[in-house]
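re: the backbone from monday

yeah here it is again, tokenized this time
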């Protein structure tokens, strides 16, 4: 039931945002009493934090597999991590509505938890840049460009503007590799 409530909560955020988020609506989506969510969560804030934790855990499980598969090869790890994140966003568009959420009613705790999905990736990129002697200002720009490629690709596919094909995936992969090469001055 807890997972069913979390998934219904994600759908509620996707459709109504945080300002209009309702535990009562989440319960209704699950076909349970309005008291049922409170058997699993003390309040709305804890429920929202559990949604973020669930999404982060799902991504971190995938990320762990990528790290193990690319141990020692940081550049390849970054490319695979980026490509897997595009796939993660496409496979879970309802997660994207939470990950990319910008809402003035978000608490600082919620913002930090939401941003934590990128912590491991940012650490890997920082480690690679340090190893490759890439200055922080260049790293920041390249990181911004790569993140734009990831989110942009997911939105374009989700909006139906581009079909996700092997060719498109290859284009994204090459664009990410190019940003890494340019950062190295190669």
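seq for it, each position gets an aa:
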């Amino acid at each position: 039931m807890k997972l069913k409530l979390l998934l219904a909560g994600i759908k509620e955020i996707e459709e109504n945002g945080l300002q209009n988020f309702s535990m009562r609506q989440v319960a209704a989506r699950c076909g349970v009493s309005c008291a049922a969510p409170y058997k699993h969560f003390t309040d709305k804030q804890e429920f929202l934090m559990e949604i973020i934790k669930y999404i982060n855990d799902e991504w971190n499980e995938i990320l762990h597999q990528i790290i193990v598969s690319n141990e020692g090869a940081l550049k390849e790890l970054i490319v695979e991590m980026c490509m897997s994140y595009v796939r993660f966003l496409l496979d879970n568009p309802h997660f994207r509505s939470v990950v990319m959420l910008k809402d003035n009613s978000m608490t600082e705790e919620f913002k930090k938890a939401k941003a934590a999905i990128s912590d491991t990736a940012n650490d890997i990129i920082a480690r690679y840049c340090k190893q490759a002697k890439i200055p922080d200002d260049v790293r920041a720009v390249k990181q911004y460009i790569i993140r734009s490629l990831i989110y942009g690709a997911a939105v374009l596919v989700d909006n139906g503007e581009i079909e996700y094909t092997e060719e498109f995936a290859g284009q994204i992969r090459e664009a990410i590799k190019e940003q890494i090469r340019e950062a190295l001055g190669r």
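The chain has a mean pLDDT of 89. Residues 52-184 form a domain with the Tetracycline Repressor; domain 2 fold (CATH 1.10.357.10).
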